[in-house]
Amino acid sequence: MKQALLVMLLLVWAGIAQAVEPGEVLSDPVLEDRARSISQGLRCLQCRNESIDESNAGIAKDLRLLVRARLVEGDSDTEVMDYIVARYGEYVLLRPNGLGINLVLWLAGPALFLTTLAGLLAVQRRSKLNALTQGLSEEEEKEIGKLLSS
């Protein structure tokens, strides 16, 4: 039992561990904190929904080094993010902005849901109206009368 608990704790710790290698860490702690915060907001282009700060992929390491190089050159956080977005596209952002095509993507789901809901309500209303206006034929009324009288 204790061994299973130890294995589970090690697996959780391994999932939390960061992929930043010691050789990548900047000597200036302020710049390193800025680099880590930027890295946590950038998506690894090879991994699915994982930041470059967490990923062990080669492209993630290259992006971490690029972020640190830009910070050392004196770029601000927004300049670094703008540079990487210009180079790799908005897909690299873990939390993309809500402007342009992203706004269309965010609104398309609810719009399709509301359109489908309106269509279903219209079909239901039309079928109720058809059922009310048609009524029963004489044969159907005779059949119901036979069933009720027996």
Helix-strand layout with pairing:
Blueprint lengths: L1 H15 L12 H12 L17 H15 L4 H12 L12 H34 L3 H12 L1
Helix pairs in contact: 2-3, 3-4
Task: Walk me through this protein's architecture.
This protein has 150 residues and is mainly alpha-helical. The protein is elongated, with a radius of gyration of 30 Å. The mean pLDDT is 82. The chain folds into two domains: 2-92, Helicase, Ruva Protein, domain 3, CATH 1.10.8.640; 101-149. The protein is built from six helices and no strands.
Main beta-sheet annotation = none
CATH class label of the largest domain: Mainly Alpha
User: What is the tally of beta strands?
Assistant: 0
The structural domain count equals 2
Task: Using the 3D structure, state the CATH architecture of the largest domain.
Answer: Orthogonal Bundle
Q: What is the typical, i.e. mean, pLDDT?
A: 82
- How much of the sequence is in beta strands? under 5%
Helix-strand makeup class: mainly alpha
Low-confidence stretches: none
Radius of gyration: 30 Å
In CATH terms, the superfamily of the largest domain is Cytochrome C biogenesis protein
Shape summary: elongated
Q: Give me the CATH fold name of the largest domain.
A: Helicase, Ruva Protein, domain 3
The succession of helices and strands, N to C, reads HHHHHH
Helical run tally = 6
Instruction: Provide the helix percentage.
Output: 55-70%
Give the termini separation. 71 Å
